[in-house]
């Protein structure tokens, strides 16, 4: 049975035992129902303690049950909670590990909560496009007040025990958690007054800033735009403060059901599964053990190298950061210091955590300092000859067991591997900028990369808190290969009549963090042009001259204060001179400018992603359509609540996607013709079944 009933004197212990995370599936719920009945019926039981086996409180509902509807098979969570509140005997939760989602809602239903020092609690439902549906928004708000609830539940943050205690979600923290909970329960049972349930608490919802909800909604308008669940969470927390309890609970339930049926929830569930599927590599089984990584070297202390060094150090890895000169190293270390300062300022790290991580990074100019590293990650200029030299030196200086990885965004991993005597240990680890923030790691498999080397960098990604996807060694890997045509199309739209504000506006309204031209300005138009100059195009295509002219005029983007826009700090403004430049290009090309609607702009930007994505599947560069979605969401700002480009295409209808591509191929070149893999998927009704 996944639920055990034990007695400790007059206290009944209900222990949930459902490996690995004690999820509240149907069997557990039935077990709890039976256990609660037994506790109710036994007069010798004066109080109950709820806890989880293996020092782990339930970490949530069973996500497959939510998707399949089994979460609605009785007893549902709400029925259990009603049973708990009607028990007539105090119930105390002993929270060890992570009590999340439905697990935490169960704990919130108890009369008191005792946490282990390292326990974490939270309601992360928003990450799946849901709002908590088991009274979580109501009880959390009644215990901790609306301001704390808004912060925590709309972001889905996990709160450490100390914070949970300070805002009133926990009643105490104790190392011997279960024993402390038993004592607490016994004390409540022996007390004169009946203990108060969260449902009945009024004190924290009675007083709050009068404009709290108005100002919170205004502050988050941009971050939540286009999404359903975060807004419904705000509504539910407001209801907890302004409506009678039963109405608040009822509204939460209605909004939970609304969210659960929404396309956004389905898209986010897809992303959740895709992220996990991306960890699996078809020909590498669990018997391939990753190499332990204690020490790492990072070569190149520039933008990327410094960020990568921070990622490693944050995960407890000792890092040597190497560059060509003491000055370059000093600049890199200074930048790292500044970035850690920002992290502390934003509350991402405590001062002690930042100091400890920073102390793990030491600068160097001699390759001899890499004599004991387990992995070296190269992040020098994107120059093949230079990178080859660096790999030769790494091969000579690092221990034979060490993995040699490159952060290159475009270069051939096999050519770098050929510069070493250990091609089987050479892989790509493509981080995204800023590396210490962006979640994606696009690992790249070279022809000779060994299963162990790949397993090591996939495991490393998890240790760094990144989401990894394994790509084949093809030009641009997954992300940049698809991006190249997306970016190019933005300029074609400008030539034909659109403005930068329109193009970016459509993509941002769709939900991307940033439009393609604003993104160019961020990365640098000089860099974009330099990359493009070295790339070949199919014979029936051309690059728009716009980017080259921007670079030639010193319109590098944000760093020079002007690019496709004018910049004041982070604020961007339209620039009439850019429009004049674009109009001149249209004139020279003999293009009659026209008004282009939002629908056409969106189609022309998204369709190249899909067709190139399908080609990547056909070529085996991407193993799954879901891998491509994960890359676009975590590396390129595609809105997660729309599921990624490949998922979006399936929802649009692959037949419709094909029709649009055929239409565009007539004017845009053969590359736009729907590829065979896309037609196959359309015929079979989806990517994975094709
Ligand atoms: P960067 O120009 O900021 O830094 C390069 C660093 O390498 C400089 O500090 C330079 O002194 C150092 N360096 C040059 N030759 C060296 C050598 N022989 N030994 C040791 N250090 C040497 O360049 P960034 O932007 O950090 O790019 C580095 C790599 O990361 C490139 O391959 C780039 O394509 C890739 N990348 C860049 C991204 C970005 O957004 N900047 C994103 C993802 C990958």
Which structural category do the helix and sheet elements fall into? Answer: alpha/beta
Helix content range: 40-55%
Question: Based on CA inertia axes, which overall geometry fits?
Answer: globular
Bound molecules: 1,4-dihydronicotinamide adenine dinucleotide
- Tell me the count of domains: 3
Number of helices: 30
Folded structure, characterized:
The chain is of the alpha/beta class. It folds into 3 domains: 3-261, 2-enoyl-CoA Hydratase, Chain A, domain 1 (Alpha-Beta Complex), CATH 3.90.226.10; 295-473, NAD(P)-binding Rossmann-like Domain (Rossmann fold, 3-Layer(aba) Sandwich), CATH 3.40.50; 480-684, N-(1-d-carboxylethyl)-l-norvaline Dehydrogenase, domain 2 (Orthogonal Bundle). The strands form 4 sheets. Strands 12-11-10-13-14-15-16-17 form an 8-stranded mixed beta sheet, with helices on both faces. Helix 6 runs antiparallel to helix 11. The relative contact order is 0.06. The model has no long low-confidence stretch (mean pLDDT 95). The chain binds 1,4-dihydronicotinamide adenine dinucleotide. 1,4-dihydronicotinamide adenine dinucleotide (NAI) binds at residues 299-305, 322-324, 328, 379-382, 386, 390, 407-409, 431-433.
Structural descriptors:
690 residues; 2-enoyl-CoA Hydratase, Chain A, domain 1; Rossmann fold; N-(1-d-carboxylethyl)-l-norvaline Dehydrogenase, domain 2; 8-stranded mixed β-sheet; 6-stranded mixed β-sheet; globular; binds 1,4-dihydronicotinamide adenine dinucleotide
